[in-house]
Write a structure and sequence with these properties.
By secondary structure, this protein is mainly alpha-helical. The chain is built from two helices and no strands. Helix 1 runs antiparallel to helix 2.
Length: 110
């Protein structure tokens, strides 16, 4: 009987630690996603301003300059969308971690 109670407490502790670990991973993903999204939004605005300011100032080959700028713009948009996905994944991990912590606390009260 005592051995069974020890195993149950150990399992609850493992569940609690797993919940905390997943919660921390989720917080990290959410934070990094938020920071990177902000960085890429600023980068996108700078590229858009460069495209608008580059009119006839380029005498070499304006099509080549525009294609490079548009490639950079698409790359930044793609990376921003990736970090939006990272941020959503972080929210999912946060919810999962909180759920595991909640379940561990409910099992502890029994």
């Amino acid at each position: 009987m005592v051995f069974s109670k020890f195993k149950t407490r150990r399992r609850i502790l493992h569940l609690l630690l797993l919940g905390i670990f997943i919660l921390l991973i989720g917080l990290g993903n959410f934070y990094v996603g938020q920071i990177k999204i902000h960085d890429h939004q600023q980068n996108i605005e700078e590229i858009k301003q460069t495209i608008l300011n580059t009119t006839s100032a380029v005498s070499v080959n304006p099509d080549l300059v525009y294609s490079k700028l548009e490639f950079s713009l698409q790359k930044s948009i793609t990376r921003m969308n990736y970090y939006k996905l990272v941020k959503v994944g972080g929210l999912i991990f946060i919810l999962l971690g909180l759920g595991l912590i909640f379940i561990a606390q409910l099992l502890r009260l029994k």
